[in-house]
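Many introductory courses stop at the sequence. We go one step further.
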Amino acid sequence: QQVLEGRSDEVLDPAQVARHEACPLGQWLGGSGREMLGQYPAFEMLVARHKYFHLQAAHVVELHLAGEQDKAWQLFHGGYRHASNQVTLLLKELRRSLGH
């Protein structure tokens, strides 16, 4: 959001943003998270939604870099936010599966 608002000097590379397996959550999902939660049906859905979230984020960055600010904001408030909410809900569902 800060990048879209011009409040950040960070230059984002869409290809790097799309690398879902490189972020801390992606590393956890590919390692100890899979060992702990891989047997639950929601786990594979979480992995897929997390990947989709990164693809949406990368597309927001691509639109921003192309000067398509209106489209970038639309996607940010649409597909990106929806994917983020799905990841959060699936994490909560898995937490409930563990009895927490």
